[in-house]
């Protein structure tokens, strides 16, 4: 895919690139059908699987092209990932045609040579399985483009890693995105102005994370029930899905949805026990959240036993996703009219150290701004919450600054009360907050207005101290790239 032609709009680049490879894939699949017709039936199984996988690639590429005009703002991000897969897919399709068109060999030898040599060059991955990798990656890009609740940043990152490995085995030169993945600036530009038709919770997990801070001591997630069949639960036919998070290769998953009857948020857990799926659902207002190591625990009240019982323990791969799930849950609960009360401990994520706190004026609202350091990973984040009133301490936004905190270029003092932050991505946990109001400058830097001059000074000093010490009080295990949990 040639991006050197800067005169072509990104959506046109994506459309042309996808259509070109889709057409190539369709031609290759048709050629394999012809080859199959000339071979004994014993060869048909693998040929049918391979041709089917190639046709699936063609379909998914056309879907990306066809949906791109409706999601123009996300096209540059998807193009970054297509830069990883398309050269590899193109090489594979061309190699298949090279074997197919080798008239010096019989059709059977062509097929045997194609299958065996291409399997060997991929490190033993059977040729049809290679297209399963391609199609899973293209499918995840479709979810990313369309803001689907099924988008899984962990799966995208894992698939990206497999593709990078395959490119290396094939001797394909690295793409700009292969090592560093997507730049934080690309993700920030998408996050500034959210989709006006979407619930704020739909936005939280709809983008790759700009950083990934790996959690240690991750165990299988656990759902404790009570469990029911899907048809035994009083779940509306068409609830508004806010997000979906899978764990342990889909063995456990949780969906957050709005009930159209009471407009309250609920969680639905799906747990695979053997080959049978069991379900459990509670309103967010009926649950309490807390952290235990690398897991977030959700507890419910047992009426029969008159005590609190564990409902689920979700273990996250990255600290960032754990924080986002926690903040999203607390904000949904705090802003839910069915919530009777929230325990003070729920407003504080355990195992975080408060490095700084001050009052700010943020989009016209009074907020408290806290700098937290995670004690397990030493990740750094900013956390803005409601200053006072009935929603006091409710999360408004958070931003991860682990990598930025080690550099002096991302933060600048603009006046006695104003500080600018560059390339910082906010995750917003309410409908009315407009972060673009704080970015009304040419560089789109995020402006923080401190109520006191001392607050601005102390904030800048906190990060200057981190820079001098080479980061936070420990060494964060972090890197740039898409994420997951």
From TrEMBL:
Domain PH: 239-341, 354-465
One Pfam family in the UniProt entry: PH_FT_N
Domain of life: Eukaryota
TM segment ranges: none
InterPro entries registered for this protein in UniProt: PH_C, PH_N
Protein name, UniProt field: WGS project CABT00000000 data, contig 2.19
């Amino acid at each position: 895919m040639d991006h050197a032609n800067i005169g072509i709009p990104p959506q046109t680049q994506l459309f042309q690139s996808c259509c070109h490879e889709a057409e190539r894939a369709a031609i290759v699949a048709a050629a394999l059908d012809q080859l199959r017709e000339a071979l004994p039936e014993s060869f048909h199984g693998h040929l049918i699987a391979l041709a089917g996988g190639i046709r699936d690639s063609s379909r998914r590429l056309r879907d990306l092209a066809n949906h791109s005009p409706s999601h123009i703002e996300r096209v540059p991000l998807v193009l970054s990932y297509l830069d990883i897969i398309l050269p590899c897919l193109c090489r594979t399709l061309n190699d298949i045609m090279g074997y197919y068109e080798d008239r010096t060999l019989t059709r059977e030898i062509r097929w045997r040579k194609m299958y065996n040599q291409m399997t060997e060059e991929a490190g033993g991955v059977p040729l049809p399985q290679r297209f399963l990798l391609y199609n899973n990656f293209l499918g995840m890009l479709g979810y990313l483009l369309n803001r689907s609740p099924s988008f899984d940043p962990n799966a995208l990152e894992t698939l990206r890693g497999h593709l990078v490995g395959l490119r290396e085995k094939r001797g394909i030169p690295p793409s700009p995105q292969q090592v560093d993945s997507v730049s934080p600036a690309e993700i920030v530009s998408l996050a500034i102005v959210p989709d006006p038709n979407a619930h704020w919770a739909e936005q939280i997990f709809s983008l790759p994370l700009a950083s990934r801070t790996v959690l240690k001591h991750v165990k299988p997630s656990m759902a404790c029930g009570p469990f029911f069949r899907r048809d035994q639960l009083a779940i509306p036919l068409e609830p508004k899905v806010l997000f979906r998070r899978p764990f342990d290769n889909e063995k456990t998953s949780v969906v957050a949805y709005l009930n159209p009857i009471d407009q309250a948020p609920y969680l639905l857990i799906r747990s695979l026990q053997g080959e049978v799926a069991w379900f459990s659902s509670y309103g967010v207002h009926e649950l309490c959240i807390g952290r235990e190591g690398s897991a977030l625990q959700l507890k419910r009240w047992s009426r029969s036993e008159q005590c609190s019982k564990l409902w689920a323990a979700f273990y996250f791969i990255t600290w960032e996703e754990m924080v986002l799930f926690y903040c999203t849950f607390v904000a949904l609960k705090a802003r839910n009219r069915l919530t009777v009360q929230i325990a003070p401990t729920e407003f504080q994520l355990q195992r975080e150290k408060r490095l700084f706190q001050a009052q700010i004026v943020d989009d016209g609202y009074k907020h408290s701004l806290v700098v937290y350091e995670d004690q397990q990973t030493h990740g750094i984040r900013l956390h803005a919450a409601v200053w006072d009133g009935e929603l006091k301490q409710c999360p408004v936004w958070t931003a991860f600054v682990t990598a930025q905190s080690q550099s002096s270029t991302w933060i600048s003092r603009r006046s006695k009360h104003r500080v600018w932050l560059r390339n910082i991505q906010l995750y917003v946990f309410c409908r009315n907050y407009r972060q673009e109001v704080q970015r009304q400058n040419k560089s789109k830097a995020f402006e923080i207005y401190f109520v006191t001059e001392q607050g601005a000074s102390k904030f800048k000093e906190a990060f200057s101290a981190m820079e001098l010490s080479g980061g936070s009080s420990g060494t964060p295990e972090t890197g740039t790239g898409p994420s997951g949990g």
